[in-house]
Structures are given as structure tokens and as C-alpha cells.
Amino acid sequence: MSESYEVVIGLEVHVELKTASKLFCGCTNLFGQEPNTHTCPVCLGMPGALPVLNQQAVALATRAALALSCDVHPFSKFDRKQYFYPDLPKAYQISQYDQPLATEGHVTIRGEFGMRSIGIERIHLEEDAGKLNHIGQRLGDATGSLVDLNRAGVPLIEIVSRPDMHSPEEARLYLTELRTVLSYLDISDLRMEEGSMRCDANISLRPSSYTGSLVDLPRVEIKNVNSFRNVQRGIEHEIVRQKALLEQGIRVVKETRGFDDAAGTTYSQRSKEAANDYRYFPEPDLPPLILDTEWLEAQKREMPDLPEALRHSLTTEGLVSRDVEVLVQDRALYGFWREVVAIFPDVKLVTNWLLSDYSRHMNAQGLSFDTPGVSAEHLAQLLGLIQDGTLSGKMAKEVLEAMFTTKESPEAVVQRLGLSQITDQEAIRVIVAEVITANPGVVADFQGGKDKALAFLVGQVMKATKGQAKPNLVNSLLREAIASHV
Amino acid sequence: MLLSKEDVLHVANLARLSVEPSELQEIQDTLSRVLEYIDLLNELDTEQVVPTSQVVEQHTVWRSDQVEKSLPIALAIQNGPQVVTGMFVVPKILDGGGQ
Ligand SMILES: [Zn+2]
Q1: Quick one: which of A140, A106, A138 has its CA closest to A121?
Q2: Model confidence at B26: pLDDT above 70
Q3: Of the candidates A54, A102, A19, A448, which has an alpha carbon nearest to the alpha carbon of residue A296?
């Protein structure tokens, strides 16, 4: 009988914290600046420079830990992680090793399998390294690198999951939910493409006959993948590659691999460093971090409503779970929804329009809900015009499209295009009377029992109002007028 | 002997030091003696002592999140042996990629 394998995945996610200054110095923490213009003796690693911890970075890291249900430790300390790499000016990174800020949290993922809890082993604070710009196509082919140290010393949290995921899909769901939770805290830009959120994936296959410990399985780490999609693809490829090796009786080598986006495959990154041997020791320049109860309580008061609570309240407000997920997973969209509902409380109408036509125009214009293409007030006014019968659904779509182009109010568009449904019964009655007078034969047919004759008369009235009357109203006014017309 | 020759070569590699074969014996001896000396500390009974990571009696030294002036770029890069477009040039890092 052939061996079957269980896929075991653990993820390490690095998140850059949105502080004004770096973790241990006053240099600006800002992406996209001219190379090496935000550096100082501390972040350049010059001898004798003294790092001083940024309180705000600790606050943001603490909120992340609380949001992920971690135990935040009143006592933690910093350590030096030593390795040589050109993006690391001190030849060590200040990190937290055996006494991190927080441990034991979890993220809940949802899928066809229902709900599952993925454990978080630890969250620690550390400084980012600089940025290497490789001369050449990719790391492996590079002939040299250019070092920019603007990013050196930017505050990071590293969120280490337990090896609780068993498929590429579960890994993707974990990342999505993690990013959603963190997005509500507003502690990071969370942009994979700019590196403010980065993911390393550890993958191993456990043969069904294996009885040893997970830690001893040969593990492959895929480093620095630049999108959730590619994390998933990288894991998919690793599973196929490792399975093929194991089936041929070849041992999987514990190593670090990169991901080739174009080929969809992983490739070995053989480092000159023989093995990871970081020789951690306590950072002598930084005293321990002790967080008192009062400070921790203050952080708890800063916590916003989190996705779990929002899911609950949106469901209570009558939304279906599919809509709830779409709203909750985009914090800006959810915020916009709240704004519209505050003005126009018909939750269903708002949700339907926002998630269909409105979102379609946003996508077409490449906009995100941080910068809505049509304001909440204008959307609410448009929905009001649908509700009071001024606009049919079809007309409202046309008006919304024009609003996205011209940024006018819905009233302005309705006036300009002459679109409103005439609901003024008196105006329609006059036209109805004219149509009856002009078509005595058709009226007689209808009175004689030819129901179809009425449709012709309705058509005549609609034509006279240029289609702006409500057909139902015209129909009933015609019947009324003919009945009283002797 | 506390350290083997392999230990010495490993530590040397981590520290990016090159060791001549003729020096190996002497380094192994002297480095082992240093460690033996530190071993003296094991004679103390530390059973009841809480481990410490810091000798200065301070904790939670932190600053508010204020931006301060960075170095002018000319000063920041002046020690770089080779600089291109404001960035330090370093040699190729990995042994090579590919499958
Ligand atoms: Zn600095």
C-alpha cells in the first residue's frame, strides 16, 4: 500500500508598524523615500550609538496581540539575533527571543469545512533590516546589490502561527483573516507589494507511518513571497515537489527556497551561511520591558470593534452571511456602509446597491473605499429617490453611472437627463383624458371586453410622458377614467 | 579539552575569521582555557537566584514617537567603499539559484 502524506503548514508573518519614527531612533518611518535619506548613527549601526525603544511601537504591537487573543506578558526583553547580511548594518538584529511580548493566541478561519481555530505561538517586536536592490533578474542571478537603509530599524511585529494548517487554502484563509483583523486596528499599511506585510511559509509532509515529532520533520521555508495568491501557489508547488521526492525515496532537504512567480515554482536559495546559528543573547543596550496593568488597560480602551463582533452585529441587522463577509473583509467598505446606513437606514437596499452596482463602478475606476467615487450622502439621496418612486431601479442605475462620471448629486443628474418618473397623478390624468378622447374606437374595444386594447392606451400615455410615468399608475388611472367615461 | 577543532572552525566561520591550519591547535587550547575559566562560575549555587538579562537596575526605558532629524545623506554614505545612486554597493550574496 502506498504511503499517504499529511501536509503541515506554519506561517510567519511580518507586519511593519505605522509609527511616525523608527523602533529605536527618531528617523522617519516612511515608505518610498530617496535611498539612505532617513538614517542616523543608531540605524546605521555605528559604534557607540544607543537604541531607545519607541513607546508607540509597543502600544501598536500590544493591540495586535490583544486582537489576536494572545497573552500579553507584563515582562519581556530584547535579544540580539546575529547574522551577516548586507542589509543588516550592525550584523545583528534586535529582536525578542525567549521572552517575547505575547504568546498563545489564535485566528479563526471559515470555509466549506466550517470554522477552525489556527493557533498563534508568539508575537514579538523587532527591527526591520534595510532593503537590497539586486542588480540582475532575481536573487540567485544577481551580480551585486545596492543597499538602502531607510527601512533599517522600522518597527516590525512577527506573528508566528502554530503548524496548524493542512492545505494551501487554509493558509490563504489564515492570512486573509489575519489581515482583516489587523486592518481594523489601523496599525500598519498591510501592503504585501510594498513589503509592509510579508509572509514566510514552512511546509513539511508527514508520512502516515511517521511517528516522530513534528519538529524533526524536514521543513522547507519559502521566503518573502509577495502576495497571498503566491503564498498559496508556492505551497501548492512545494507539496507536489516534496511528494515526488518522498515517493522516489529521496529525503527532503531542510532549506530555504524562493518563489518564482512566472514559473509558479520554488527554487533553492543556498546561503553562504552554513546553518542558522543566530547565537541570541540579551541585548545589553536595552533594559527589560515591563508593562503595568494601567498601561495595558489603556491599550484595551483603544481597541476598536473587531471582525468577530462586526459579523455578529451585521447578522443581527439582517444581512446574509455572504454579504457580511464581503463587508467585514474590507474595513473601508464597511466604514462606508456604516456612513450610508446612518443617513439612509434601509439596510437591505443600501447593501444591495453598495455591493452590486456601486462596487462595480468602483472596480471599473480602480478605486478603493478609502476614496469613494460617489459620497455616502449622494448614494443615500439616490436610494431615497428609488424608495419614494421618483426613479425606477433601471433609471437609478443610469443616474449612478452618471454620478460616478460627473460627481453631481442625484437630483442634478435627474434634472439634467429629465429622468424622473412622473408620479404627479394630476399631470397624468390630463394626458389619460387626452388619449381616451383621441382613441374612441380602442376605448370601445376595451369596454367590449378586449383586454389587450388597454395595453395600447397605456403605450400611448407612456409615449406622451416620454416614458417617465409609472406604468402601473397609468394602468390604474386609465381603468378609472374609462369606467367613469360614459 | 572543551572545544573540538570542528567547534573552532565553526565559530571562526560564523565570525568570518580565517584560521590557518598552523594556528588551529593554539586557538583550540587557548579558547578552551577561556571557557574553563568561565566554568568557575558553576561552582556557585544559583539554585535560588532569578536569572537576569540586565545588570543596570532599570526597566522600560522608552521614548515618545517623535521624529528627529536624520543624517544628511552625504554623511550617511561617506564610509561606504563603493556608492551608486546614494546606495552602498555590496557583492553578490548567494551561491546561485536555480533548481
Ligand atoms: Zn535612525
Answers
A1: A106
A2: yes
A3: A102
Residue B84, SS3 per DSSP: strand
* Residue A143, pLDDT above cutoff 80: no
CB contact under 8 A, A56 and B65: yes
Q: Give the Å distance between the CA of A62 and the centre of ligand 1.
A: 23
Task: Tell me the percentage of chain A whose pLDDT exceeds 90.
Answer: 56
Dump pLDDT digits (tens) for B29-63. Answer: 999 999 999 888 888 898 888 888 888 788 999 99
Those residues of chain B whose CB sits closer than 8 Å to some CB in chain A are 10, 13-14, 16, 53-54, 56, 58-71, 73, 76-77, 84-99
Mean pLDDT of A68-76: 96
In angstroms, what separates the C-alpha of B94 from chain A's closest C-alpha?
Answer: 5
In a domain, B35, yes or no: yes
When the candidates are 1.10.10.410, 3.30.2160.10, 2.60.40.1250, 2.60.40.10, the CATH number that belongs to A425-483 is 1.10.10.410
Q: Tell me which residue has cell 573552532.
A: B8
Q: The domain containing residue B28 runs over which residues?
A: 5-42
Q: What is the pLDDT of residue A414?
A: 82
Q: How far apart are CA A358 and CA A241, in angstroms?
A: 44
pLDDT over 70 for what percent of chain A?
A: 95
Residues near ion ligand 1 (CB < 5 Å) are A 25, 27, 40, 42-43
The interface residues of chain A toward chain B in range 334-393, judged by CB-CB distance below 8 A, are none
A137 touches chain B (CB under 8 A): no
Query: Which chain B residues are closer than 8 Å to A269 by Cβ?
Result: 94, 97
Closest residue of chain A to B9, computed from CA coordinates: A274
Entry pTM: 0.82
Report domain extents, chain A.
Answer: 5-295, 305-417, 425-483
Average pLDDT estimate for A365-371: 89
A141/B62 Cβ within 8 A? no
Give which of B58, B83, B66 is closest to A35, Cα–Cα: B83
Question: Residue A207: pLDDT above 90?
Answer: no
pLDDT at A307 over 80: yes
Q: What is the pLDDT of residues A451-479, one digit of tens each?
A: 888 889 999 888 887 777 778 788 888 88
